[in-house]
Amino acid sequence: MPLALHHIVIDARDLPALARFWAGVLGWRILSERDREVVIGPDPTAPVGICFMPVTDRKVTKNRLHLDLTSAAEDREDEIERILALGARRVDVGQSGDESWTVLADPEGNEFCVVRPKDTLIG
């Protein structure tokens, strides 16, 4: 049987707070909460979730891996504003200003992008 993606793991200083942020962003829920692990997902049977694991150090450099999020084209700006209200912030990672994505960071500084829907990028 081939391997399948199980969790995306994000190191966090404040596991419950970061898990709540991402659950709010994605409309997911907390599935499991332990001292050293918090898991969120759309539901307990979902094939992939996000797992938050503890670290003591602060994030200091740009992520080497990040998430790209999308929504309907007409909802994109409202979704960005909603995510900012949840605690994200806009960040500059060297973009020119002509990109089809917006770079944000979660409350602990992990960058992610809100991109145009795939159907607007293909063709």
UniProtKB/TrEMBL annotation:
Residue span, VOC domain: 4-117
Superkingdom of this protein's organism: Bacteria
InterPro entries for the chain: Glyas_Bleomycin-R_OHBP_Dase (IPR029068), Glyoxalase_6 (IPR041581), VOC_core (IPR037523)
Lineage of producing organism: Bacteria, Bacillati, Actinomycetota, Actinomycetes, Kitasatosporales
Protein name: VOC domain-containing protein
